[in-house]
Design brief:
Blueprint (H helix, E strand, L loop, with lengths): L16 H14 L4 H6 L3 H15 L7 H15 L2 H15 L2 H10 L7 H15 L6 H9 L4 H24 L14 H5 L1
């Protein structure tokens, strides 16, 4: 299937062995190659640089979980109305939370989700940095610290928000559509047990 990109998709067999291995690993884990891979790999060297950064900032830590990081992705993507990222990271959030309903509430409108005060503070910050970056002040960063985030966590929230804003804009501008497989992954009772 085509990624939907307005540019030609990468031909996997023409990519470097490292990128072919990455595509194979994604296919093994998900059952398909994400359309963002084939679209972004139109410029393989830039795809490699983007993916290396993506992998680093999305790596969970003891104090900022995978679910927290995916929550940041869907909050930024929701404000930007990035269909690809809402669908793909909505699936990743379901996978991390093992709670379809709450993951969907976070994805569609985090204000209606079951969140801790810490998570709410993160969402407020992500929303402000995404929708009105010039208005972010020291008090906004201080609010994250007051909610229990340390300096490295705050840095990660900022960097993740910025990275998803970048990714949202590329995905939307290129016309990339989400793989249909994302819609059914990590849903239902079997996913909750996972």
């Amino acid at each position: 299937m085509s990624s939907g990109s307005y540019f030609p998709d990468a031909e996997v067999d023409e990519l470097s062995p490292q990128l072919q291995k990455l595509f194979g690993k994604a296919s093994e884990q998900l059952g398909f190659v994400p359309n963002v891979f084939t679209a972004y790999a139109h410029r393989p060297e830039r795809f490699s640089a983007w993916f290396n950064h993506f992998r680093q900032v999305t790596e969970p830590s003891e104090t900022l979980s995978g679910a927290d990081r995916e929550m940041i992705a869907v909050v930024a993507s929701g404000i930007n109305r990035c269909t690809y990222c809402l669908v793909s990271h909505g699936q990743a959030l379901r996978h991390e939370l093992h709670d379809d309903a709450n993951a969907d509430r976070i994805t569609f409108n985090w204000r209606h989700a079951d969140l801790t005060d810490r998570q709410r503070a993160i969402c407020v910050f992500v929303e402000k940095l995404t929708s009105a970056p010039a208005t972010v002040e020291r008090s906004d960063v201080d609010a994250l610290a007051a909610a229990g985030l340390g300096p490295d966590d705050i840095w990660d929230v900022v960097e993740l928000t910025a990275m998803y804003n970048f990714t949202n804009r590329i995905s939307s501008a290129l016309g990339i559509v989400p793989n249909v497989e994302y819609h059914s992954l990590d849903r239902g009772p079997a996913a909750a047990e996972g």
